[in-house]
Amino acid sequence: MSAAEVAVQVFRKLENEDLRILQVIEAAKSKYEYIPKEVIAKFSKFSPEETEFRLNRLNKLKLIYRMKGAYVGYTLNYAGYDCLAINALVKAGIIEAFGKPLGVGKEADVYDALNPKGERIAVKFHRLGRISFRQTIRKRGYTTQHANWLYQSRLAAEKEFEALKLLFPCGVAVPKPISQNRHVIVMGMIEGAELAEYKEIPKPEKILKEILRNVKKAYLKAGVIHADLSEYNIILKPNNHILIIDWPQYVKKEHPNAQQLLTRDVKNILEYFKRKHMIKAKLKEAIEYVTGKSRTISDFQCISSTM
Rounded to an integer, what distance in angstroms lies between the CA atom of residue 114 and that of residue 228? Predict the structure, then answer.
């Protein structure tokens, strides 16, 4: 069972005192790797007996880690951090209920949910600890060497939410940004599947053109480059239109490596369509189109091939 599944299942069981203990542990993480029980009791203003009871309860619910060494200390795990974010979003009137998981990836869990109006929304829990620490540092410029996984995941969520707020008003095909708390983003509903999951797609030339139009719109109107674009973060919706997801690595076009990253994004997509759907397109012409040097998408050709 994933941490998000644990959190979704146990959240409604939590009492205010449980959440208070989680909040104290979260606040004290800046000073302690594992927070002593006495410190938790002091800042929660609970008696030693009440503190002990709550810590044992949270440990059984799998929301915290307990360390026994020179002293007994506690720290949050992802499920505990999830519960704090869920609590804040429920109190803010953003989330009413959770549904089924929409997807579990290397760096995130995404859930179907409802808002208080009964409208479907998507809730994304960032999970940076699932990839190696070295890879995280190499790929993500906003991480620091000593940052813990929970903090890194929070930074990823903040950066992705920032990207969506830049892109969505410009008409780029991305989920609607609704809210963000800690490492969790709430977005408009995501329906469909990753391009990588389809053996065949209808009218692949049309879909390729739509992807490139959105890359162009992101670049020219929002000044944003995805920087990790592939068939794994492009959703093909039931209506055969696309949605581009997973933006925590985005850069602005003023970034010193912007052109290199934009070229890599476009190259990844062209290579996928060539390999999987037998469509060839020239990289140079595609780059000229997405950067606005060519006005129309017809300036380059998507040619079916029998490779």
Answer: 29
Instruction: Compute, in degrees rounded to 10, the torsion defined by CA atoms 7, 8, 9, 13.
Output: 80
Query: Does residue 199 share a domain with residue 297?
Result: yes
Query: What are the helix (H) ranges across 92-147?
Result: 133-139
Q: Which among 16, 188, 2, 160 is positioned nearest to 91, based on CA atoms?
A: 16
Provide the pLDDT for residue 180: 98
Which residue, 154, 104, 106, is CA-closest to 130? 106
Identify the pLDDT of residue 130.
Answer: 54
Residue 85 resides in a domain: no
Q: Would you say residue 87 lies in a domain?
A: no
Residues of the chain below pLDDT 50: 132-134, 136-137, 142-147, 299-300, 304-307
pTM for the model stands at 0.90
* Structural contact between residues 171 and 217, judged by C-beta atoms closer than 8 angstroms: yes
Active site residues: 228
Residue 75 lies in a domain: yes
